[in-house]
Each structure stands twice: as structure tokens, then as C-alpha cells.
Amino acid sequence: MRSIHLVNPLWDAHGGSERRLTHLYDALKSDAQVRIWSEYAVAEQLRQHFPLRRISPLSGRIPWAGTLVFIGIYYYVGGWIRLVRPRRVVVIYNTFSPPCLEKFIARMKWGGIRNIEWVFASNALRAKSELDGSVQESLINLQEFRPVADVPIKRDRFVIGRLSRDVPEKFHRRDPELFHALAAHGMTVRIQGGTVLESVLGGVPGVELSRVAAVGAAQFLQGLDCFIYRTRDDWFEAHGRVITEAMACGLPVVCGRGGGYEEYISHGKNGFLFDTENEALQIVEKLQDDWDLRTRIGREARKSMEGLQSETSIRSLVDFYLR
User: Fold this and answer.
1) Coil, strand, or helix at residue 104?
2) Residues 249 and 282 in one domain
3) In a domain, 322, yes or no
4) To the nearest 10°, the Cα dihedral for 32, 38, 39, 42?
5) pLDDT, tens digit, for every residue of 190-208?
6) What SS3 state is found at 27?
7) Which of these, 24, 68, 72, 76, lies nearest to 50 by C-alpha position?
8) What does the alpha-carbon distance between residue 138 and residue 247 come to, in Å, rounded to a whole number?
9) Are residues 187 and 254 in the same domain?
């Protein structure tokens, strides 16, 4: 049985890298001996639900051999890297940061590791990195993230929302203006992970700001009619896991152009892409007024995710790590 070691700081139970790791663990654990490692203080929620090991070279607790998988490149790898003798080293690059990438590669070379198999969160990220490797989607649980009904629920007020980490770079500089306009058009705007916008949107009628994980991600998404997303101009969203989760829930997604998630969205078929606030507002208003359109787009979004996360696709991903 293959020995596979998954390495990440595991700082944030709701972070994209951490969720990629835990879903990868679930996919692999039946076919391999899989261990999860961190050399940092781990989020309590992850410690409670997964069998984690703390890297401790002095105690001899390190991922000695087998396949070593680093999820993300944004953290410092300790001196233990010079002690291990892995059969393979796989690095999942899922957050665009050339400085972090340069430092990570240098650290691997310092540790004597030069033969790295790169995995990218999107084709766009692979192109930006100028490295060779494969592209893998982040696995999601289609049973958890699913539509609540065969057809969209008709509500008194159209509910549009978004979900992200509660940090400035996850929001475009003109998002407050857009959210204010959506609320002014009679919609409810729910932003989980939006307390960073409290100074500009707090108290605005129709806008609801909440902290990260105020409710579970699936529960939050299943209470929406539409999902909207874009980030700051200088932040490249390499994948956008929350977008695929929203699509799996059968939601029409309305996303700003420029992210790796564009690879999953066929404009006007299973979602929408926009360049300006006016375009976004027009799309959302059309979805608000046209229940049949919302139904069709939502069904196509769900179908797209079922294809992306099919048993065949998951088996291919598992086989990659079992090589």
C-alpha cells in the first residue's frame, strides 16, 4: 500500500488549501496509507475531525519516505526537509504568489529536492507560473453542496450573496458600490466573510454582513438565489473553490472576469462573467426577473460540477497519487 504524506500548516479550517487537503485525504484513504502533517499550530476544528501529526524532527516524527504532497507554497518549510527521502514530491500550487513560489523552490533545493511534480489549481495559474505540470480541480462534496429543490425557490425578495475569507483582497474596490446598488434594486445582499466592509456597508438596508463560518458554507449557499464574486484587481483568484461550490448548489454565478474559475463558466450557459458594475447589475436583474432563466442556468451549473467531479475524474486523481 502506498504511503502518502499531506503537508500544510492547517491554520484555517475554512481555507481553500485546508479544504483541498481534507477532501484529498478522504479520496485517498481507502487506497493508500495517508497521513496529514503540520509543523504549526493547527485549527482546533481540524484537529478534532482529522488524524493529524505534528512534525517534530527531535522526536523523529517526520514524513520520512513515500509520496510527499505539499498543499500550497505560502508557508515556511522547516529543516526537516533535509532529513526526508521521499519517493515522489508533489507540490499543489493553488495561490498565485511569485515571491512565495521562488522562496519555496529555493527551500526545496536547499533540502536536496529538485524533482518536483507540479499540480496547478487552474490552467491560468499554470500559464502564469511558467512551470510544467498537471491541473487538478479541488474536490467538493456533491452530496453536501447540492440544490435544495429541483427548481429554484420563489422568495418575496431575491437573495444574492457571496462567501469568502474576510480580508480586503477578496473584494474589488468597487464592490461596496455594486452591493449598495443591488440592495437599492430591492434585493437582499448577504456577504459571509464581509465584516471587513462594515465601515462602508454596515447599516445599509438590504445588506447583511456576517463573519466567516457564521453558518456552514453549504447552508449559506442553499439560502441564496444567485452567487456573485470578484476580487481586488491585484489579487488573482487562481481557482475560486467557493464558485464551484455555489455551482454545485445549482446557483447561477455572476463572476468578474480574470480568475482561474473562468475555465468552469460558459457565459450565458452555466453562469455569467462581467467586466463592469453595470454589466453585473444588468445580469442579476435579469436573473431576478426571469425565473426560467435562473432555473436553466442553475441546472446547467449543477450538471457542470457533476461532470467535473464524476467518479471517473476522482478515480483519475486518485491514480495520480498512487503512481
Assistant:
1) helix
2) yes
3) no
4) -150
5) 999 999 999 999 999 999 9
6) helix
7) 24
8) 14
9) yes
CATH code where residue 79 lies: 3.40.50.2000
pLDDT score of 75 = 97
- Per-residue burial over 76-115, b if 16 or more Cβ lie within 10 Å, else e, is ebbebbeebebeebbbbbbbbeeebbebbbebbeebebee
Residues with Cβ within 8 Å of residue 139, at least 6 apart in sequence: 20, 23, 24, 26, 27, 309, 314, 317
Q: Which three cell numbers stand for residue 191?
A: 456577504
Mark whether 130 and 167 lie in a shared domain: no
What is the tens place of the pLDDT at every residue in 19-43? 999 999 999 999 999 999 999 999 9
47 and 115 together in one domain: yes
Is 176 found in the same domain as 123? no
Q: Which residue has the cell 440592495?
A: 183
**Residue 201 belongs to what domain range?**
159-307
Q: Under 8 Å CB-to-CB from 10, ≥6 apart: which residues?
A: 18, 21, 36, 38, 40, 42, 43, 46, 52
Say how many domains are in the chain: 2
Q: What is the pLDDT of residue 60?
A: 92
Q: Is 224 part of a structural domain of the chain?
A: yes
Residue where a domain stops, chosen among 136, 170, 198: 136
Residues 6+ apart with CB under 8 A from 81: 107, 108, 110, 111, 112, 113
Residues in CB range of 138: below 8 A, 6 or more apart:
16, 19, 20, 23, 94, 121, 239, 241, 244
Residue 218's Cα: distance from chain center in Å? 13
pTM given for the model: 0.95
pLDDT in tens, 266-315: 999 999 999 999 999 999 999 999 999 999 999 999 999 999 999 999 99
Give the three-class secondary structure for 184: helix
- Whether residues 168 and 248 share a domain: the answer is yes
7 and 128 together in one domain: yes
pLDDT-derived band at 155 (thresholds 50, 70, 90) equals: confident
User: What are the cell numbers at 302?
Assistant: 449543477
